[in-house]
């Protein structure tokens, strides 16, 4: 059983975009730097989306340019890009990876980005083309892959079909998301088994939210089925966009702690990560959502 | 694979004894009643311990007597009993089950009850005898079975030896406790495999704390290895006695939600349980620790 796990840190994007409190540009820059110093090697820095819809991401360009300028980095940075306009900004910024997104549920796609799943592909086809023209890697998210807030159940076979199409258009990795944190361990195991029959474990990430407390349990069964890439968020930043006050992203600290305890390697320095979480806590007026960090702070 | 799981509700004892805020006698009585109405069939009501050491348990006698008088109950109630004096109170109260406790670590036993593990057995031997003389069932806890705040690692073989001795003196069930929430999923699996080689799954409970967020993951691997009895606490009542502000008991709501999602049965009505948690939340000025209840409240 391969023991190395890749952690994709999404706190600065998926985390902060669901936080009421925004962080200043210097604080975000310091967070990125601290995460990298703690050993995180894949970090989402922000999103080139409309500041009207997601005001927390309005300073993404500053973050990206300043961070890339100051850090001769060993980490891979990425930004979320929804359309061609965002892609133009991404190209100009010097970023070397972007992420596009769709969903496994039609109703969610309609409500979230006002188009069908098929139309979402049409939208990001030119984005992906432009990315490849500039040697920018493309990651792709599939939201609501384990359940939809509007439709309920989502078939795993549908997720597999969409993942296949994303690889076809040139995504190097697909992140399969439990957007509402409804997945359970056996469901994750089955999803992993189905996807890894056709796709390499080097290309499939699981993005599991902790809304019902099951994220670590889901990770355990996903690991058993062969998944080795997980998206996580420092301090569990980011709630559930469909239920204010509920938990969302699983905390990087808690995932890394469990992985190390189980004998997996991440090349992340848990102690430095917890120190980063302690420092980050000062910028929020509610306790962050990592139990491991809470214990360290207690 | 047997699909029925027994949940032992310990919120009124292990939960409240680690909460700063105590509940009034009427509130505790209402909580016990609501838990029973939600389908809980094994409920710890309190502890016959010194009110000097554990003031939250000082009204246990009132709770037990009043509850047993008012409810022609289908549930099995229990109280924790540390010594002969406590046992006399238990006999007088009419309770039909008690729990005794020891630990798997010598330093913990010394610091916690000021004696060796062997001496702890000598202490509760007359307690168990008196219980049996009065047809009172005896449950036994083994604390720090997965790790000790003073000694660190604890050998699973030691836990097995102690469990064997507890059965020998007449305990009908042994609850194996991760007092500091340090266990990881593979450790739980191994512990379960070791214990279930010698003892029936009908007699071994796991009492897993969520201090590092791993309790549900630990339950999943314990279930796979055959464990079918878990101690849980409504709203995750009770913190970590060794780190104020950190999480302790795993929340009954979250466990039941996951078990049902995975196809296990508990005979517990999750909706009623969540309503109980909502009601209980009003009595605390901090959010309770169940993610499922938080989601319902959001």
Question: Could you walk me through the main structural features you see in this protein, from its secondary elements to its overall organization?
Answer:
- The structure is a homodimer of 298-residue chains.
- Chain A has 298 residues and is an alpha/beta fold.
- Chain A has a single domain, classed as TIM Barrel (Alpha-Beta Barrel), CATH 3.20.20.
- Helix content of chain A is 44%, strand content 17%.
- The first copy, chain A, contains 12 helices and 10 strands.
- Chain A has helices at residues 11-15, 25-37, 60-70, 84-93, 106-113, 117-133, 156-168, 185-198, 215-224, 252-261, 270-281, 291-297; strands at residues 6-9, 42-47, 76-80, 97-103, 137-143, 173-178, 204-208, 229-232, 239-240, 243-247.
- In chain A, the strands form 3 sheets. In chain A, strands 2-3-4-5-6-7 form a 6-stranded parallel sheet.
- In chain A, α4 (84-93) links the parallel β3 and β4 (97-103).
- In chain A, α2 (25-37) runs antiparallel to α11 (270-281), α4 packs parallel to α6 and α10 (252-261) runs antiparallel to α11 (270-281).
- The radius of gyration of chain A is 18 Å and the shape is globular.
- The mean pLDDT of chain A is 95.
- At the A-B interface, α8, α9, β10, α10 and α12 of A face α8, α9, β10, α10 and α12 of B.
């Amino acid at each position: 059983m391969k023991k190395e796990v890749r952690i994709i840190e999404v706190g600065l994007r998926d985390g902060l975009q669901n936080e009421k409190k925004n962080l200043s540009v210097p604080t975000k820059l310091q967070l990125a730097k601290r995460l990298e110093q703690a050993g995180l090697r894949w970090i989402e820095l922000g999103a080139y989306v409309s500041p009207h819809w997601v005001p927390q991401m309005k300073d993404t360009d500053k973050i990206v340019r300043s961070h890339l300028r100051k850090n001769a980095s060993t980490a891979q940075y990425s930004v979320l890009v929804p359309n061609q306009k965002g892609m133009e900004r991404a190209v100009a910024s010097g970023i070397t990876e972007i992420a596009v997104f769709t969903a496994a549920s039609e109703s969610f796609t309609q409500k979230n980005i006002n188009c069908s799943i098929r139309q979402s592909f049409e939208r990001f086809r030119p984005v992906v083309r432009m990315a490849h023209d500039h040697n920018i890697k493309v990651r792709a998210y599939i939201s609501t892959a384990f359940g939809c807030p509007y439709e309920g159940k989502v078939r795993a076979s549908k997720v597999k079909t969409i993942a296949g199409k994303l690889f076809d258009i040139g995504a190097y990795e697909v992140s399969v998301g439990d957007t509402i944190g409804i997945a359970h361990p056996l469901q994750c195991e089955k999803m992993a088994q189905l996807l890894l029959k056709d796709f390499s474990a080097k290309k499939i990430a699981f993005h599991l939210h902790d809304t019902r407390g099951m994220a670590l349990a889901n990770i355990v069964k996903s690991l058993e089925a062969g998944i080795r890439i997980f998206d996580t968020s420092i301090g569990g930043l980011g709630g559930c966009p469909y239920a204010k006050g509920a938990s969302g992203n699983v905390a990087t600290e808690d995932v890394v702690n469990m992985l190390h305890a189980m004998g997996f390697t991440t090349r992340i320095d848990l102690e430095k990560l917890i120190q980063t979480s302690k420092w980050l806590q000062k910028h929020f007026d509610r306790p962050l959502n990592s139990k491991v960090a809470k214990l360290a702070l207690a």
